[in-house]
Structures are given as structure tokens and as C-alpha cells.
Amino acid sequence: MKYWKHLLAFLALLSIVSSLTVTPAMAIEEPNIAGEAAVVMDFNSGQVVWSKNENEPRAPASTTKILTALIALEKGNLQDEVTISEDAVRVDGTRVYLVAGEKQTLENLLYAMLLNSANDAAYAIGEYIGGTIEGFAQMMNEKARQLGAVHSHFVNPNGLSDEDHYTTAYDLALIARAAMQNPTFRKIVATVNRPWYGAEWTNTLINGNKLLDSYDGAIGVKTGYTSEARWCLVSAAERNGETFLAVVLGSNNKQIWSDSKALLDYGFNNFYTQTLAHSGDIIEHLEIDEQQLEIAVASDLTYLQSKLNPIHPQAKIHILPLETPVEKGDKVGEVQYFIDGKEVGKLDLVANNSVERRITLWEVWSVCTSVIVGLLILAVLIRFINKRRSRRYGFRSYSRLGRYSNM
Q1: Which candidate in 51, 52, 117, 261 is catalytic?
Q2: Domain closes at, from 351, 376, 401
Q3: Which residue in 5, 179, 318, 389 has a CA-CA distance of 20 to 30 Å to 270?
Q4: Catalytic residue flag (residue 62)
């Protein structure tokens, strides 16, 4: 009996110790992607949370049309009338069967290009916005560089194969992120179908992105295929305030969808947005000239945080040398956020209230002294002027008397 009591006590102790043992950080299971290059990016911050051959140049096929649409929306107006050229009509691949001389609004052409992936519509847009296809390609490359997509080069607006037409999974994510910030683009790529009325072809435009009706929260963006590029897909989804972008290049027809779902799932299952600072948050108080100055952050800052292995950034505050007066809204410093010595964010710090300049006793004494000295100098000067004037008038009187006596 005594033996069993000791055994039960030992087991109870072991249970308590086990419950107090710290569980090591869990490893995040990475997605298994068949595609040759891939990226999943947090839409809000632009942070890449997983990638595969993300900087490897590849043919993008019709995902090129994301950049074409972004430039068209920035440079044109939706109700602009575009006259279709002979060259646009002769373009190979998927089309909406435009006719030379036909007029379509830029809005209609954008829907045809992004839903139906119409190459003739893309060509017509490129000619209209750029003047020529070569001119539009130059605009595409300039815009790509502005967005940081520095490993890309484009020669046409529709993505038909060319050895000088290439991008990377990472660059394409940057381009898609910029495009999805445009409300009109976002509306178009989330549209499942739309009627099309052409000069010789009437039909319904069907969005080729199957994720729109098969993945929870899907909001875009564009499919692509050529024999060289194989199947490509840029996708985006939004859930509970979190939005992720996924890019898959060089997959096959069956796995492009599962690849993209796996990437989006990886983002949603393993990460969340942590707010490091809200605009207007007071993070410091300073005393200047015996007055209180509230220091606030100038804007919001978020950081994508791991759900399983959270690491909280450390803040470092830098205050500029300050002198009164300080006006509300003046920049007074910066706050930087670091993880393992690497900066992950930076914000301006501004004055949340005004601080007036106070006059010191020494300044009062200096002003009073200056006034008194100035008055004394002025008095001496006036006296000197009056004295000279008196002497001049006295000499004239003497002369007149002398002249009268000689008469």
C-alpha cells in the first residue's frame, strides 16, 4: 500500500512538472508548390512570407495585363473612345474579335482584357495609351522600375511570348500590389462575368480566375498561359482585415489552383497584422522652457507577425534638438522599430501641441537696457542738433546788426 502511495505521488509530481515545461516554438509547415516560381506577400505591408525562385526571370504570359491595366487606368479615362486598328485585329491568341475601325470605350476594353484575357483588347489599349506598342512598352518598363520591379522587361501589353519579355514572381507581386490599390482595377478583377457587345461579336465575358467562386475571400487578380510560360496565376484574398497576394509561375493546369490556394492558406493560417503604432499615439513627453510637449507618431505602422513564433519589434526613439517655439505638427524626431538588429519600420514623430517661446529675465533686462541706451543716445543727438541750430541762428543775427550799423 505504501508503495502505491509513493508511486501515485511521483506521477502527480511528474504531471505538474510536465505542465510547467515550456513548449518549444513550433515550426511552420511550408507549402508544397509544383510551380517553378512562387511568392506569397502580405498586401498591407508588402512583406514576403514565403517564396520559391522569386527572382528567377520567367515568361509571365497574360499576367502581363495587370501592368497594362494599371498604366491605362492612370493615363486614360474610362469613357475614352478607342478606335481599333488593323494591327490590333490581327493579334494572335484569345480575342473578343474586334473589328478594324470599331470604337470601344477604354472601360469595355479593360473588362475584355482582364476577364476574357483578350489579346486584341490589350493591343488596342497599348496603342491608344502609348501611341505605339513600342511607346507603351517603354511606359511599362518605366512603371515597373518605379514600383521596384527591377528584374523585369516588357515588350508588349498582352504577354505573348518574346525572349525580351520577362518578369519574376517577386516583381509581379509588386506590380499586382500596386494595381490592387486602384479601386477600379480591384472592381474589374473581382467581376465574375459581364456582357460584351462588339461590332461583330456579342457574348458574355467570363473571368478565368476560378478562385473567385472556389476560395473564401478571393478578390482577384489574373490568369495567364502560353506554351513557354505554362500556367501562371496571380491571386488575392481578404479575410478579417488580412489580405494576401500569391503569385505562381510555371505550373500546370490542375495544380495552378491548388498551388495558389496553398500559398494563400499559408499566409492566413500563419500570420496576422500587428499594429506597431496608430497615427496620433503619444509616445513621449518632454519639458521645454518649463512647458510640456507631447510627442506623437505621424502615421500608422503595421508589421506582419507570425502566429506560432511571434517576435515583438523593439522601438528606438530619436528626438531632434528642439528650441521654442514649437508648433503643433512640427517634425520633432523619428521612431525606428527593430527585430534582431534589422529595421522593420520607421515613423516620423510630430509635436502634438504647441510650445510658446518664453522671455527670460536676461532678455527683459537686455531689451530694457537697449531701450534706455537708445533713448540716451537719441537725447544726446537731439541736444547736439539743437545746439548747432542755435549757433547758426545766432551768427545770422549778428550779421544783420552789423549791416544796419554801417548804414
Answers
A1: 117
A2: 351
A3: 179
A4: yes
> CATH number, domain at 217?
3.40.710.10
Q: What is the 3-state secondary structure (H, E, C) of the chain?
A: CHHHHHHHHHHHHHHHHHHHCCCCCCCCCCCCCCCCEEEEEECCCCCEEEEECCCCCECCHHHHHHHHHHHHHHHCCCCCEEECCHHHHCCCCCCCCCCCCCEEEHHHHHHHHHHCCCHHHHHHHHHHHHCCHHHHHHHHHHHHHHCCCCCCECCCCCCCCCCCCEECHHHHHHHHHHHCCCHHHHHHHCCCEEEEECCCCEEEEECCCHHHHCCCCEEEEEEEEECCCEEEEEEEEEECCEEEEEEEEEECCCHHHHHHHHHHHHHHHHEEEEEEECCCCEEEEEEECCEEEEEEECCCEEEEEECCCCCCCEEEEEECCCCCCECCCCEEEEEEEEECCEEEEEEEEEECCCECCCCCHHHHHHHHHHHHHHHHHHHHHHHHHHHHHHHHHHHHHHHHHHHHHHC
251 is catalytic: no
Tally of domains in the chain: 2
> pTM of the entire structure?
0.77
Same structural domain, 153 and 66: yes
Structural domain includes residue 378: no
Query: Which candidate in 51, 52, 65, 235 is catalytic?
Result: 65
Is 65 a residue of the active site? yes
Annotated catalytic residue within 51, 62, 235, 260? 62
Task: For residues 213 and 319, state if they share a domain.
Answer: no
Q: What is the pLDDT of residue 23?
A: 36
For the stretch 167-189, pLDDT in tens is: 999 999 999 999 999 999 999 99
Identify whether 201 is part of a domain: yes
Which CATH number is 334's domain given? 2.60.410.10
